[in-house]
Each structure stands twice: as structure tokens, then as C-alpha cells.
């Protein structure tokens, strides 16, 4: 009986204790903020922001096991037109990740350091190891054909942007003093467009996609491409280092989403160029110029030596401009550990990509002849109105001939592209210069003096887009 009383009392105590436990409030699951700053109109940031957001790719990859089993995610997106204000909010602790170019990204690192903290560059999104993407434009009716003609002129540029760094390097390459030989003023892209149309500035330097967008819209002409300075440039993503150390799996998830966005664009560039246009108002024809096969810049999430050098150069330029007195260790600032993890989780080979310098490949047949395109040095493309996919041609002469037939049947081209014979850069054919060879071959160039140099060396006649088409039609 005594044993039964003890057992009964013990059970009663257990019951009371269990009841108290049930009465206690349940432990609150951790709410993890994932606050991301984007630059939607800087379309080379699309795979790190706009597409992840619009396709809800981050939600697909956020960790939900282990220490994240009960986590709740608070995903926040905020869009900016340039990197400087995005950096301000990251430093203020309002954002955890952000995408921007090498120059403002380096300023981001300097700003964090000044605040006694650190940010790290965790991935490239898209770029050019030669510098293409940045550019200088003049009003459409300007007589200026080259940078050399801008001495003593006013050139506007978004200060603290990657195009600002390009402009300074280009001016120095001319042997000019940037404080005396040119008047460099600050101007955001949304202000520069109207200023060019009104003739209030004699030239404007800008980053992706404005050196192509303004000419496409018909009020400007590109006279300088960043590749002429041979200075690598890119757009990539940064993270608050404290955040990355606390939530490394969340950072890897963000990068997995970026890799997925990159894969989708590669598979269907026209479709996602249209989506970017729908969100940003930047025409799909300009988006495809960058994101389509053989694009003006290359989507690439690996830290190639040229991109690491771009960061070092940007940090040096910041010191030259006296925008920072701090010495940032570029090797510590750029970290590839997180993107390597994302590649591994996605079943991709990071080291293989690190060695791949090819542009987004073009695997297609000539729309005029039906033959596979094996040499892309003279590729031309036509996006026909009403057609979902771009037509590809082995040469401008094939494209122009087919375009003439299309127009006779009442069809119209949304845009025509050509590859620069010297640089391999994709061009808007309507603003390019062409050399008509003796055997009927046609080669495209960004600048008139480049075309004239080719003609002098190889023979041929220089013509603009309309002239080239008329010559072939005749």
C-alpha cells in the first residue's frame, strides 16, 4: 500500500509539472530578415535582384532544416537607381545584401570600414573582362565622333559609379588633367537623358544599360566604349559580413537563386528580356543586347582575376579621388567561399567556370540559309516584330537581305544587331558603321574611324546602316 501511495503521489507531481509546461508560452521561432537592395534598371544586376524577386527564387532555396527548421523569413526588397544610396542603407543596417558595380561596391567596402564594420563582395553577376558596358554618348546630332574631340567640353556622369571610374581612366589615357582639360559634372541617368535631348551637356558617361539605351531611343550616339580603356568592369553582390557569418546558409541560398536566374536567362533570353522590360520600362531589345547570346557583357558568377583586379583598381581610384583614406585589403574584401558553396550545392563546377571566358554561346542556324553558324565574328541578328524569338544570321549581308524580303512582305524589325569586327561586341546596327568589301562581305564597327581603318587595310567602302543596306539592295 505504501508503494502504491508513493507511486500515486509521483504520478500526480508529474501530471502537475506537465500541466505547467503546457501552460508556458511556446518558444518563439526565430524571424530572419533577408533585406536585399536591387538596381532594377541596371539590368546586369537582374540575376541578383529583379529576376529572383519576380520569380520568387529566393523562397525556393532558403534553408528550412537544422537550425533553420522553425525559422520564419522576412524577405524585403528595395530598388535603387545607383549604388551610393543602396550603400547608405546597408551601412545603416537597413539592408543585408545589395548588388552594384565594382566602383560603388568598393565605395561600399570603404563606407563599412569607416563605420567600424565590414562588407564583402561575394559574387560577380555580369561583366566584361575588357570593360565593355560602360560608355560615353553625345547628342544624336553632335559632330563629335571620338573622345579626343571632347577636350574642354562638359561631360556628365553619375559620381561614384563604375562609369565615373571609366571616364577618369579614359581622360587620363588621353593625357588630360581631369580637373582642367574637361569639365566633369555629376548627373544621374534619369537626368542625363533629358539633358542630352535639350543639348545641356556635350557628352554623358554612364553604366549599363544607358550607353545603349539612349542611342536605342534615338536621342544619343555612342562614341566611346569602356573596352577601349581595357579596364575590366562588372556588377556583383555584397553582403554585410556580420550577417554572412551569422547566416551563411541564407547567403548561399541567395546565391543559389542567382545561379537559377542565370540558368533561366541563358535558356530563354527573349522571354526574360521581355520580363525585365515589363518591370523596368527598359526595352526588351536593349535587355537582349546584354543578356542574349554573344551579349555585350557576359553573365558570370565566378571571381576571375580580371574582376578581382577591377576591385583593386576601384579602391585605388577612390583613394585618388580622396573618397577614402582607408586601405582595404582587396583580397579579404573579395571572398569566393560563399559562391563556391552555392556552385557545389547546385552541382556545378566553379573552377571550370573560372577558366571559361566565352561569351554566352550562340547555337543556331542561319535564318536565311538554314546552315549552322560556326563562325560568330560577323554574326547579325534580327528581332522581327510579332515573333517571340530573335533570328540569327552568319553575316550582316545575309541579315540585310532577309530583312529586305521581310519588309517587302509588310513585316518590320524591332531591332537589328551586329557584332563589332574588332572587339566582338554586340552593336545596335542602326548606329553602327559598316565596311562593304569587294566580294560583297560586310563588317560592322562601333566607330567611323575604326571602319575607315579597316577599309584602308583590307579595302572596301565605309557606310552607315542605311547606306550599307542600300548598297546591298542595289
Write the layout of secondary structure elements.
Blueprint: H1 2-23, E1 31-38, H2 50-54, H3 57-61, E2 72-79, H4 83-91, E3 97-101, H5 102-114, E4 119-128, E5 135-139, E6 154-157, H6 162-173, E7 183-186, H7 189-197, E8 203-206, H8 210-216, E9 220-225, E10 233-240, H9 241-246, H10 248-267, H11 269-280, H12 284-291, E11 298-299, H13 305-320, H14 330-333, H15 337-345, H16 350-354, E12 380-384, E13 391-393, H17 396-408, E14 413-419, E15 426-428, E16 433-436, E17 442-445, H18 448-458, E18 461-464, H19 465-473
Helix pairs in contact: 4-5, 5-13, 10-11, 10-15, 11-12
Features:
6-stranded mixed sheet, 20% strand, 5-stranded mixed sheet, 474 residues
What does it look like?
The structure is a single chain. Helices cover 41% and strands 20% of the residues. The protein is α+β, with helices and mostly antiparallel strands and 474 residues long. It is globular. The relative contact order is 0.11.
Number of helices: 19
Q: β content, as a range?
A: 15-25%
| Oligomer state of the chains in this structure | single chain
Using only CA atoms, what is the Rg? 27 Å
Structural class: alpha+beta
Which consecutive residue ranges, at least 5 long each, have pLDDT under 50?
Answer: 13-27
Beta strands, count: 18
The pLDDT mean sits at: 93
Helix content: 40-55%
Largest sheet: 6 strands, mixed
Strand order of the largest sheet: 2-1-3-10-4-11
Gap between N and C termini:
118 Å
**How would you sum up the global shape?**
globular
Write a brief caption for the model.
Helix content is 41%, strand content 20%. It is an alpha+beta fold and 474 residues long. It is globular.
Amino acid at each position: 500500500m505504501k508503494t502504491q501511495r508513493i507511486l500515486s503521489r509521483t504520478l500526480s507531481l508529474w501530471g502537475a509539472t506537465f500541466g505547467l509546461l503546457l501552460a508556458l508560452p511556446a518558444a518563439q521561432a526565430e524571424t530572419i530578415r533577408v533585406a536585399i537592395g536591387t538596381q532594377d534598371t541596371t539590368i546586369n544586376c537582374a540575376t541578383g535582384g529583379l529576376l529572383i524577386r519576380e520569380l520568387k527564387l529566393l523562397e525556393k532555396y532558403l534553408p528550412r532544416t537544422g537550425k533553420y527548421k522553425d525559422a520564419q523569413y522576412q524577405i524585403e526588397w528595395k530598388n535603387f537607381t545607383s549604388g551610393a544610396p543602396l550603400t547608405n542603407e546597408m551601412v545603416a543596417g537597413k539592408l543585408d545584401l545589395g548588388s552594384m558595380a565594382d566602383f560603388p561596391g568598393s565605395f561600399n567596402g570603404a563606407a563599412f570600414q569607416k563605420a567600424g564594420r565590414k562588407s564583402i563582395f561575394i559574387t560577380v553577376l555580369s561583366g566584361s573582362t575588357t570593360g565593355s558596358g560602360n560608355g560615353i554618348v553625345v547628342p544624336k546630332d553632335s559632330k563629335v565622333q571620338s573622345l579626343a574631340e571632347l577636350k574642354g567640353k562638359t561631360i556628365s556622369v553619375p559620381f561614384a559609379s563604375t562609369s565615373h571610374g571609366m571616364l577618369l581612366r579614359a581622360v587620363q589615357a588621353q593625357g588630360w588633367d581631369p580637373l582642367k582639360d574637361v569639365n566633369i559634372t555629376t548627373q544621374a541617368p534619369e537626368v542625363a537623358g533629358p539633358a542630352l535631348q535639350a543639348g545641356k551637356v556635350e557628352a554623358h558617361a554612364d553604366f549599363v544599360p544607358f550607353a545603349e539605351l539612349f542611342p536605342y531611343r534615338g536621342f544619343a550616339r555612342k562614341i566611346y566604349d569602356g573596352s577601349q580603356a581595357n579596364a575590366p568592369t562588372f556588377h556583383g553582390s555584397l553582403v554585410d559580413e556580420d550577417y554572412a557569418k551569422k547566416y551563411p546558409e541564407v547567403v548561399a541560398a541567395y546565391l543559389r537563386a542567382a545561379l537559377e536566374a542565370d540558368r533561366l536567362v541563358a535558356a530563354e533570353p527573349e522571354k526574360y528580356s521581355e520580363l525585365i522590360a515589363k518591370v523596368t520600362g527598359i526595352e526588351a531589345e536593349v535587355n537582349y543586347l546584354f543578356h542574349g547570346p554573344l551579349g555585350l557583357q557576359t553573365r558570370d558568377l565566378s571571381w576571375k582575376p580580371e574582376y578581382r583586379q577591377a576591385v583593386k583598381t576601384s579602391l585605388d581610384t577612390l583613394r585618388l579621388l580622396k573618397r577614402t583614406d582607408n586601405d582595404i585589403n582587396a583580397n579579404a574584401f573579395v571572398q569566393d567561399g560563399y559562391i563556391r558553396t552555392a556552385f557545389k550545392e547546385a552541382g556545378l563546377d566553379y573552377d571550370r567556370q573560372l577558366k571559361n571566358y566565352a561569351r554566352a554561346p550562340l547555337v543556331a542556324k542561319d535564318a536565311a540559309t538554314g546552315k549552322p553558324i560556326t563562325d560568330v565574328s560577323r554574326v547579325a541578328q534580327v528581332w522581327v516584330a510579332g515573333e517571340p524569338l530573335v533570328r540569327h544570321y552568319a553575316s550582316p549581308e545575309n541579315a540585310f537581305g532577309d530583312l529586305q524580303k521581310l519588309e517587302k512582305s509588310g513585316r518590320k524589325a524591332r531591332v537589328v544587331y551586329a557584332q563589332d569586327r574588332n572587339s566582338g561586341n554586340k552593336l545596335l546596327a542602326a548606329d553602327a558603321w559598316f565596311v562593304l568589301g569587294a566580294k560583297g562581305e560586310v563588317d560592322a564597327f562601333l566607330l567611323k574611324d575604326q571602319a575607315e581603318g579597316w577599309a584602308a587595310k583590307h579595302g572596301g567602302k565605309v557606310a552607315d546602316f542605311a547606306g550599307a543596306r542600300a548598297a546591298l539592295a542595289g
